[in-house]
C-alpha cells in the first residue's frame, strides 16, 4: 500500500512521535510510506530509516501545486494527523480523489468541533476520550469512528547512558523526578505545580531533584519560575529544551510525570509514572487503573475529576520515593503489558485495516 501521512510540523511532540513510529512500522512491513510536512528536527528520524519526506509550505496558495505533486506519486490513501493537518489532507484529497482519513490526537472544543469542515468519513481515535470528544450531538456518528492506539518503540527502550552529574549538574545520589512535556499554556500548569511541590518533597526526601524537559510557548515562564526557586533553595531544579534522546533518561528517573505518548514510553521502561496533563490529574499509574488512565490518555485528552495541583503531585511523588521497591514491582507489571500490547507493528496493522475499509468505501 502507498500511504501518505500528513503532519503539520515534525517538531518534538506526541503527534510527531506517533507518525514516526507507525511510518517506520509500515515501511518495515513492505508498504511505501511518505510523510508530508513543513519540516522540523524529528524529520531526521524518518530519513535515518529511509522514509521519504515531502517538505512543503501548507499555505493556501501552495495547495494546487502540492496536490499535483501528490497525485503524481499515486498514493492509495492520505492520513491527516490532527485538525490543522487534516485541513491540508482534506484539500489534497478533494483535488486528487485519493481517499482520506483523519486521525485525532486530542480533545476538540464543542464549537470548534461543530464548525470543523475537514472531517473524513472514517475518523480514527486513539483513546476513549478522543472518541467521546468528537462523537455525539452535532459530532461524528460513533459508527464512523475507528479505534487505534498510541504505540511505543521497543528499539528506543535501550540502556540509559546519561550521567546526571556531568550532563545536568545533578548530584550522583539524586532521587530524580523527571517531567517531559510540550509546554503550551494549559500543559505548563503541571510543570509550574511541580515546582511548587518541591519544598514539601525535599523536606522529606532531601536528595530529590527535578529535571524538566520540553519546549513551547510557556517554556520561558517555566525557566523563570525554576530560577526563582533555585535562588531561594539552591540548584534543585533544572529546565532543559526538548531533545531527541530524551528516552535515555527514562530508566534513570526514580519517578516521572508525563502524559500521552511520553507516558507510554516511560511506562515501557518500568519507571513509576504520575499521569497529569492539560485536562487534569490521574495520579500514579498501576496495573489496576491502567485501562482507566489510558482511556483518558493519562489526563491529557479526557476530563479528569481533579485538577493538577502541588499537593496531589507531592503526595504521589513521595509515595514512590519513600516506597521505591513496592512501586517498582507495579511499574514492571505495567511495563510488561505496554511492551507486549502497544507495539508499532500492531498499531500499523490496525491503521492498515482501517485504510483498506476507506479505500473500499466502507
What is this structure's SSE topology?
Elements: E1 2-6, H1 14-28, E2 32-37, H2 43-48, E3 52-55, H3 63-73, E4 77-81, H4 83-96, E5 100-104, H5 110-115, E6 123-125, H6 128-134, E7 145-147, H7 164-168, E8 175-182, H8 188-204, E9 208-215, H9 219-233, E10 237-241, E11 255-258, H10 260-268, E12 273-277, E13 280-284, H11 290-295, H12 310-321, H13 324-341, H14 344-359
Parallel strand pairs: 1-2, 1-4, 2-3, 4-5, 5-6, 6-7, 8-9, 8-11, 9-10, 11-12
Antiparallel strand pairs: 12-13
Helix pairs in contact: 1-14, 3-4, 8-9, 8-12
Major sheet description: 7 strands, parallel
Rg is 21 Å
DSSP E strands, number: 13
Percent of residues in helical segments?
Answer: 40-55%
User: Strand sequence of the main sheet, in spatial order?
Assistant: 3-2-1-4-5-6-7
Note the gap between the termini.
17 Å
Proportion in β-strands: 15-25%
Shape: elongated
Look at the structure and give the mean pLDDT: 92
Q: Count of DSSP helices?
A: 14
Weakly predicted, low-confidence segments: none
Oligomer: single chain
Please provide a written account of the structure:
α3 crosses α4 (83-96), α8 (188-204) packs parallel to α9 and α8 (188-204) packs across α12. By secondary structure, the chain is of the alpha/beta class. The two termini are 17 Å apart. It has helices spanning 14-28, 43-48, 63-73, 83-96, 110-115, 128-134, 164-168, 188-204, 219-233, 260-268, 290-295, 310-321, 324-341, 344-359, and strands spanning 2-6, 32-37, 52-55, 77-81, 100-104, 123-125, 145-147, 175-182, 208-215, 237-241, 255-258, 273-277, 280-284. The chain has a 7-stranded parallel beta sheet with strand order 3-2-1-4-5-6-7, sandwiched between helices. The model has no long low-confidence stretch (mean pLDDT 92). The protein is elongated and about 65 Å long. β8 (175-182), α8 and β9 (208-215) form a beta-alpha-beta unit. The protein contains 14 helices and 13 strands.
